[in-house]
Amino acid sequence: MNFNSTDIHSFRDIWVFCEQRDGKLMNTDFELISEGRKLADERGSKLVGILLGYEVKDIAKELGGYGADKVIVCDHPELKFYTTDAYAKVLCDVVMEEKPEVLLIGATNIGRDLGPRCAARLRTGLTADCTHLDINTKKYIDFLSTSSTLDVASMSFPMEDTNLKMTRPAFGGHLMATIICPRFRPCMSTVRPGVMKKAQFSQEKADACQIVMRHVELSPEDLKTKVINIAKEAKKMVDLIGADIIVSVGRGISKDVDGGILLAQKLAEAFGDGVVGGSRAVIDSGWLPADHQVGQTGKTVHPKVYVALGISGAIQHKAGMQDSELIIAVNKDETAPIFDCADYGIAGDLFKVVPIMIEAIKET
Ligand code: FAD
How far apart are the CA of 323 and the centre of ligand 1, in A? Predict the structure, then answer.
């Protein structure tokens, strides 16, 4: 196939790999399509969703409702369940033929496996776990032109080209690194679920979205693994990303762990249909399961109300919750960094403060 990742002028359009499980689209798809729409508008290009699966044509139109101009559907029985070899083969084949300029993938378990595999095959770069994307070339050139430390004229990559600016936490979350991929295409990025805002669904746009069915070729040599059975975890995972109210606990509950978690549950219930989250210290101590972790290496959430109980407010924790609509913090140390991002801060012992909060909410 005539594919050369360094021939950057032959690449067009913004693509989003859309993930489905059991024939259902994921929330991440809608977030990435919404973000991709903004990038495509800035770039003046098309936004294309690529959907792999089996008997998934009917769900493709929904992606149009969030902004996709076109959805390419690769439908094949061997794509019913995710396997690295089959999905990487099919996705790379389509990318090599159609040459998208940008390829966004959700940083889900599947995306984190598929993205690097495809990037290596396509001989391009991938920025993993991004929290911000920008494609405004003009702003970028202006920035470089005014920067005293950079000599724009001596730069060897073509400045007139649009580069996707991909921002992600680096050095343990202590700084945000903005990365570009100037010499190779497609620019590939995995994007953290829950970070990008989902657009309003539009039936009109969904109806206007073009669906293209693509022939899939998979030979036995392409398939090194086969899914025989999927055993689902009996326990229901906590839905932190979709929750409106989250009450999170930190190491501050250590003097009575069970009592602290119970108080958080009661407070979450008092607020409405809330769920309990935790800092990494709580997860690492085994006080709550891993799916409850909020933060850089946990979930990124933006609920209507986020309550932090006995959480110091380390940068890695804040990275996952600071965009919440309303933040309430309870900490016995009035200098704790969590108060810097809190709308309401209560300096006090959570074991004394939370029962009073619960009573006060019940009375209103
Ligand atoms: P601590 O920092 O120990 O804070 C406990 C707080 O409780 C203190 O402020 C104390 O004043 C207060 N307190 C104690 N007793 C009471 C009481 N009775 N009432 C009220 N307040 C009380 N952390 C995350 O949370 N999420 C992540 O995703 C994450 N990812 C990370 C990734 C990397 C690469 C690294 C290096 C770290 C990461 N961390 C993450 C860890 C992070 O740096 C902090 O160590 C962690 O968030 C601390 O958790 P904590 O606030 O519960 O505990």
Answer: 18
